[in-house]
């Protein structure tokens, strides 16, 4: 029979006597081990089983990782800094930065308080001279008043070229959707829905196309030909001075207008062809 001293020391150390009892041997168990009769009771209780499963370390780690992956806000891909940008991306970003900086520096007539604010009325007059409405009205009037077949042919195709320019520029603007410069004042003459976008410059495309058209189909003296080229250049440059467009908008507009004239030459209409088309519609 074990002595009371041994029994007390065994109780303090967390040991329990073996079921045999009287052989003097003791089995030590961990203090955090659940007794067998409590295990049976917990196993029969479904609520406690679910609670133990939810409190398990693996479950907690899994829930923490899922929370961090789904609950945390994921940054958009365009907001993340790319560590290995390509050469084309670097070149385009640099070109865009230079374009915005140069356009802001050249917008000296953007408002009345600008450094060249006194020249703003003259720039707006040049702006109106390159607008589509005066050109459409003038071409239609000249077509109506023209008596010669050659004059009707030229005015008819100029009218078709102006309509084609409006359609192509509107499509490109709606596709690109580049906003106008921040220093622009929306006080333009007769604007439409797509005119809130800036790329490309419709004035620049129209000026380049009309300049090529007039130089190719009108017999003009040398001073007048120089004036036509100067007018087209001033129309494009005024777009930047007024803050309406960025530099790249105007440059691309000149190239687009130059190309549009080639398209007009491919689609050239004669008066007889136009009359036959009207007759087929009737």
UniProtKB/TrEMBL annotation:
One of its GO terms (molecular function) is sphingosine-1-phosphate phosphatase activity. One of its GO terms (cellular component) is nuclear inner membrane. The keyword Transferase does not apply. The keyword ATP-binding does not apply. It is a multi-pass membrane protein. Its EC number is 3.6.1.68. It catalyses: (2E)-geranyl diphosphate + H2O = (2E)-geranyl phosphate + phosphate + H(+); (2E,6E)-farnesyl phosphate + H2O = (2E,6E)-farnesol + phosphate; presqualene diphosphate + H2O = presqualene phosphate + phosphate + H(+); (2E,6E)-farnesyl diphosphate + H2O = (2E,6E)-farnesyl phosphate + phosphate + H(+). Residues 1-77 are annotated as: Disordered. The chain crosses the membrane at residues 154-176, 213-238, 250-269. Residues 9-18, 63-72 have a biased composition (Low complexity). Keywords: Endoplasmic reticulum, Hydrolase, Lipid metabolism, Membrane, Nucleus, Transmembrane, Transmembrane helix. This is Polyisoprenoid diphosphate/phosphate phosphohydrolase PLPP6. Its main location: endoplasmic reticulum. It is found in: Endoplasmic reticulum membrane; Nucleus inner membrane. Residues 154-265 form the Phosphatidic acid phosphatase type 2/haloperoxidase domain. GO terms for biological process: lipid metabolic process. It is an enzyme of class 3 (hydrolase). Belongs to the PA-phosphatase related phosphoesterase family. InterPro entries: PAP2/HPO, PAP2/HPO_sf.
């Amino acid at each position: 029979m074990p002595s009371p001293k041994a029994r007390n020391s065994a109780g303090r150390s967390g040991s329990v006597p073996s079921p045999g009892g009287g052989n003097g041997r003791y089995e030590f168990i961990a203090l955090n081990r659940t007794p067998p009769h409590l295990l049976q009771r917990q196993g029969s209780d479904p609520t406690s089983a679910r609670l133990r499963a939810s409190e398990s370390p693996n479950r907690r780690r899994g829930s923490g990782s899922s929370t961090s992956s789904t609950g945390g806000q994921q940054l958009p891909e365009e907001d993340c800094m790319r560590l290995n940008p390509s050469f084309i991306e670097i070149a385009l970003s640099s070109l865009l930065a230079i374009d915005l900086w140069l356009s802001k520096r050249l917008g000296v007539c953007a408002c009345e308080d600008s450094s060249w604010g006194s020249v703003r009325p003259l720039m707006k007059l040049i702006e109106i001279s390159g607008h589509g409405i005066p050109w459409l009205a003038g071409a239609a009037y000249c077509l109506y008043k023209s008596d010669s077949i050659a004059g009707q042919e030229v005015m008819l195709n100029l009218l078709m070229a102006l309509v084609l320019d409006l359609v192509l520029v509107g499509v490109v603007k709606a596709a690109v959707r580049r906003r106008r410069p921040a220093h622009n004042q929306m006080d333009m003459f007769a604007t439409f829905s797509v005119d809130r976008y800036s790329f490309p410059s419709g004035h620049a495309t129209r000026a380049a196309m009309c300049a090529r058209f007039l130089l190719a189909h009108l017999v003009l003296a040398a001073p007048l030909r120089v004036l036509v080229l100067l007018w087209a250049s001033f129309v494009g440059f005024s777009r930047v001075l007024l803050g309406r467009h960025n530099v790249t908008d105007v440059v691309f507009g000149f190239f687009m207008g130059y190309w549009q004239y080639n398209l007009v030459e491919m689609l050239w209409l004669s008066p007889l062809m136009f009359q036959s088309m009207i007759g087929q519609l009737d």
